[in-house]
Amino acid sequence: MAVPQASWTILATLRWTADYFRTKGVSEARASAEILLAHTLGVSRLDLYLRYDQPLNPEELARFKALMVRRREGEPVAYLTGHREFWSLDIRVTPAVLIPRPETETLVAAALEAAESVGAGLKLAPALEQHPKTQNLKPKTSPLWGVEVGVGSGAVVIALAKELDRMAWVGLDRSGAALAVARDNARRHGVAHRVHFLQADLLAGLKPFAAFALLVANLPYVPRAEWERLPREIKTFEPPGALLGGEDGLDLIRPLIRQAQQYVKGGGWVLLEVGDQQAPQVAALVEETGAYDRIETIKDFSGMERVVRARRLDGTG
Ligand SMILES: C[S@@+](CC[C@H](N)C(=O)[O-])C[C@H]1O[C@@H](n2cnc3c(N)ncnc32)[C@H](O)[C@@H]1O
């Protein structure tokens, strides 16, 4: 192949690579070329266009070509760069964790809304926050607790910990390798002191003491038949244990719904991310427990019912 030469400029390299990716059936060809070239040069995507006539030196070109070949073979861009943006946070990712998806921001937004009704409140307004007397407004009692089941990279629990600065969190995952990535991300975002990560099968590692104000989970929910149809990019590179949910996709969500009511306090909320067409079935499973007085489904930006949210009956927790 007529690969980019040392004399090639940023613009020429981008054009060539985007065309090459297109002919090889690489998804998001232009964006992939831009992100990988920006990563190689240690600049932003915008910077590429501000320096479009700058030639690449041989060392930059060699590093870029190596990434280009891996991308051609289907490796996700986020694994190649080691980063993905989620909720405007830079999240480190490795092949041990699912790459956080934009639609999962719906789960974060729905949890923030629910948090207001349990008194977690959002951050104090900036003007108040800067006023020395606002120290007195901070609760003197122990903080409200939340739990995320299946943290993966930690994207969700870290976004929530950053937004809800009065809450402390437990982050659970079955995968030790994922927990290592999540711990690192929590440290990088300055919330490690408020998120306690534990290795556990669903909630099995915790005593059922009905203490949590929020329980959020984006567990694997891809049904077996759908798994076969997923793009190679996902099937080959992302951890199956983060995606596969058994025959109907609900192998993990079903037992979590059975356990959750023992962990969430009255007036607290359970929030579950679900896959295409699963919301009615999951809402019915939640209803069957008789433990919740408000059950809602929330749509994502594409109009799909993405989150099932339920409020624990008061006075029973
Ligand atoms: C779909 S990923 C979600 C990761 C992250 N919360 C996100 O939204 O990007 C599901 C996560 O659940 C974890 N998981 C799967 N089965 C589990 C189980 N039985 N108990 C705890 N975690 C589990 C996987 O290891 C994976 O990290």
Question: Mind sketching the topology for me?
Answer:
Layout: H1 10-23, H2 29-41, H3 45-50, H4 58-72, H5 77-81, E1 83-86, E2 89-92, H6 105-117, H7 126-130, E3 144-149, H8 155-163, E4 167-173, H9 176-188, E5 195-199, E6 212-217, H10 224-229, H11 232-237, H12 253-260, E7 264-273, H13 279-288, E8 292-299, E9 305-312
Parallel strand pairs: 3-4, 3-6, 4-5, 6-7
Antiparallel strand pairs: 1-2, 7-9, 8-9
Report on the biggest sheet. Answer: 7 strands, mixed
Q: How many DSSP-defined strands? A: 9
Tell me the Rg in angstroms: 22 Å
In whole angstroms, the N-to-C terminal distance is 65 Å
Structural class based on helices, strands and sheet pairing:
alpha/beta
Return the average pLDDT rounded to an integer. 91
Which regions contain 5 or more consecutive residues with pLDDT less than 50? 122-141
CATH architecture grouping of the largest domain = 3-Layer(aba) Sandwich
Which of globular, elongated, flat, extended, rod-shaped describes the shape? elongated
CATH topology of the largest domain: Rossmann fold
| Largest sheet: spatial strand order | 5-4-3-6-7-9-8
Percent in strands: 15-25%
